[in-house]
Structure formats: C-alpha cells, structure tokens
Amino acid sequence: MKNNKNEVQIFGVIMDIQPGTFFKDGEKFVRFYIGAKRTSGNVDLLPVIVEEKQTEGLKIGKYVYVEGRYSSSNKHESGKSHLILEIKAETIWCGDGDGSAEGENKIILEGYLCKPPIYRKTPIGKEICDLMIACNEYDLRRTDYIPCIAWWKEAREADDFKVGDFVKIIGRIQSRIYHKKLSGDEVELRTAYEVSIGRIIEHESGSKKDFVGELQEVSE
Q1: Residues forming a β-bridge with 164
Q2: Are strands 43-51 and 80-95 parallel, antiparallel or unpaired?
C-alpha cells in the first residue's frame, strides 16, 4: 500500500461551534460547522475539527477557509457501529463577511475501492453509483474510509470497478438530510455526508486478494 492523496479545500461561513473540546491523537480539538454555498444556492453544512491552539478568531458568522483532509472514524453506539466523517483542518483562516458569497468546496481523493460499487437509477432516471474508497494516511498508520457518489457517465464507468482497484477522483463534499425509520412508526431525521464525484481522474485495476487482508471493519 502506498500513501494516498487526500486534500480538501473549503471556504464558507461558520454556522455553529460545538462547546468544549475533545481529545484526538493526543491533541485537544474543537468541532465546528462550515456552510459552503453551492452555485444552486443550496448550502452544504460540513463538520470540521481543528486543534484548539488554532481556534483564535473562530466565531459564528465569520468567513473561514480550511485546508486539510477528509477523516473517518467509527463510533460504537447501542451495539452498532456508525461511520463518522469530518474535515480535519491543517490550515485555517478566519475573516469578516456577510455570508453571501458562494463557498469553495473541493476534494482530491485517491485510494482503493474497498466495497463493490452499487449502481442504480433514481425514480426520475438519474444514474448514480456509490463507491467506498479506502485512503491511507501519509504515515500509513491509519486508513480513512470515504463514501463517494458518481453521476451519469462516471456512474456507468464506476459500475465496472472491482474491490482493490486504485481510484483517483476530484469532487466536493456534500451533506444530505434523510429520514431513518426506527422501530414502529418512529422516524429520525439524519444527515449523511459523502463526496460527490465531479470527475474520475485515474483508475487502475488492482488485486482483491492483496487488498482485503488490510481492510478493517467498515460500518454501514
């Protein structure tokens, strides 16, 4: 396995800051949410974590620019494992603004397909293919598992991919609200995060046998 590129650039408005701090990899972190406006006018509300020592000037309503990587972790709750996705900030800038500007939202991601692709069509005929890409961190000590979604031509192309294939994509991180049916008639409103693929830059066939041995459990 080689190091994989995982580069995120986000520019938007700070919509919320969670109170308190938490420890991750031996450092204190703060979690906040960026609102990145699309050209359509819709806003993706995206979670970001940043080391406490880099939070000077962090304030709701301010513009913020973040460079970092897309990070995943598993949260175990009520006997189930949930995939948690958030942007881990490495560089951050805060400034004033009125929140009216469109946000920058770009990710370049490369890694290995760790689940079979799922191709489908929506009720209105839109072609979609779901991919799960395993991206090794630069020090090779951990792997991030990133759900991605391809559209139209890229969806048809991705449908032929196999577990273990190397894939490099460029896209944006999006948030999506959905209804999760619980027991009985109970329904819970949840937010899903995924990478919307703009373009598949590179694809190489890989070895499923060689790759599967290095996978860890990925939650649904």
Answers
A1: none
A2: parallel
Reduced to 3 states (helix: H, G, I; strand: E, B; else coil), residue 76 is strand
pLDDT tens, position by position, 66-125: 999 999 988 776 667 788 999 999 999 988 765 455 568 999 999 999 999 999 998 899
Rounded Cα–Cα distance for residues 125 and 130 (Å): 16
The phi and psi torsions of 124 (rounded to 5 degrees) equal -100, 10
What six digits make up the tokens of 181? 């049916």
Give the dihedral sign, CA 168/127/171/31: negative
Whole-angstrom distance, CA of residue 219 vs CA of residue 62: 34
pTM: 0.85
Instruction: Give the span between the Cα atoms of 69 and 8, in whole angstroms.
Output: 5
User: φ, ψ for residue 180 (rounded to 5)?
Assistant: -105, 120
